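Researcher: Structure prediction, please.
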Amino acid sequence: NVPEAHRKMIWHLDTPPDSTLMSSWHTFQLVKQTGIKVTLDGQGADEQLAGYLFYLPHRLHGYGFSDLGRQFSALLAKHPTRVALGALFLAGAARLAPSIVGTFLHPRHKLRMEDVRRGANWALRRDCGMNLANLIHYADRTSMAFSVESRMPFLDFRLAEFLAKVPECYKIHNGWTKAIARDAFAGKIPDEVVWRKDKLGWPIPEEQWSNGPLRGWFERSLDARGRNLDALMAARTEPMVRAGSIAQKVRVMNLFAWLDTYGSGDWRQFESGAASVECTGTKVIDSQPPAGIPA
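Model: Predicted structure follows.
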């Protein structure tokens, strides 16, 4: 029941997320059914080791012209052509003529070029303080909704402090992302894992749902009528609902669901009968979920 799971997810998060988080939600639901209490998750690896492909232009920008051709060839051997060419274009534009090329670019792309010029480690530090913080929040809330503790070895402070000092050339090297980690694990885990080239996310079939079996729910969830929106919020959300991408529509849907839950007082139905929570410092060590929330 996706609509009901989505409603409960919004309550647990306390804040509207970027996606429906149904992949995370149902993964931890399945984990609970196995009786497992603790999971080891990979959060933080991509943001510390440059695992995402959008860090490739930052690294290419750092190479001299004599090495650029060799590194581009390495990218072509390991990544789709469009990815390698896109990285080369951004790195070259940022290096050669940012002021000239920038006149033809959307402001969002101009900011992207400025990021590229600052280098991969600068981007990693930024993302650790911004995007990663959100991902940790999502993982913590969706896992604890099912009384599962999500532990993240890559965020051990000793490893995090070490990786913050590692030069970016060890993180992206010869076309490989997470290069230093691949070298460290080579021979210890199967080669098809260590040297895997493709990168898969945690996909959610939101577009298929919105055009298929859950279309009615999506449309009702995006209907602003009856919601007490101020003029600014209405002006910002209306174009996204009318002509936005599925990602934008999901963000609006989450915002409206959050307003329905916390703005209208619907949260009280979850709070009724909630047990007191025993804490040590700021770490919750035991609690009984409110009525209506999965144990």
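Model: The mean pLDDT is 85.
Researcher: Thanks, that helps.
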